[in-house]
Amino acid sequence: MECKLQMLQTIKSMCQENLVLGTWGNISVREDNCFWITPSGMPYTAIQTQDFVKINLQTEETEGLWKPSSEWRLHAACYQQREDCKAVIHTHSIYATAFAVAHAPIPPVVEDLVQIVGGGVDVADYALPGSPELAENTLKALGAKNAVLLANHGLIGLGRDLTEALNVCRIVEKTAQVVVAAKMLGQLQELSPADIHSMRQFYLTSYGPGLREEVK
Ligand SMILES: [Zn+2]
Questions:
Q1: Active site residues
Q2: For residue 14, is pLDDT > 70?
Q3: Which residue ranges form the domains of the chain, and what is each CATH number?
Q4: What's the 97 CA to ligand 1 centre distance in angstroms?
Q5: Which of 209, 93, 81, 197 is nearest to 150 (CA)?
Q6: C-alpha angle 134-5-63 in degrees, rounded to nearest 5
Q7: pLDDT at residue 38 in the model
Q8: Residue 210 C-alpha to ligand 1 middle, in angstroms?
Q9: What separation in Å is there between the alpha carbon of 23 and the centre of ligand 1?
Q10: Is residue 97 very low, low, confident or very high in pLDDT (cuts 50, 70, 90)?
């Protein structure tokens, strides 16, 4: 039950922060060899815990009252190919989608982005929504990172939990806005691959609250 309450909380944050509009976008969470996903076409304000749909990652069998989000294949592919992935969020936020429409990658120019995503955000080749090709193209462009843009569509953010996946979507949207503003001021200065690697490793291994040595 707890993971479904977290899903409701995440949906609320996504709506409040304008990361999605209407019924577009979707979220999911891994649980053992299954994942829970938002139902298809239901307004976010109407969704309750009993409306989430459970899908088995091996058999792709579905349990629940409603049809799963039409992008369930995309979510399944993330869990099947990325053992570290425990939550997936798909948004249509405005600036990230602008980059997706221009087929322009979001460059690695700010530290929070490279820490949480692992570098810049690439664009997956276009495929129709809900198609197996979209899942295939997305995973190819995603690689080992935690975010990818879907051409002419939106953004996928992954995380070790829902909080992290939501932060990925927030930081990618913020960076897309920063890049547009920075381009008006001059040339972008990208972070070096060595610095990106170092910040990503620090984030994965040491980031977060920690007790001082003296009080351990
Ligand atoms: Zn979408």
A1: 71
A2: yes
A3: 2-206 (3.40.225.10)
A4: 10
A5: 93
A6: 55
A7: 96
A8: 37
A9: 9
A10: very high
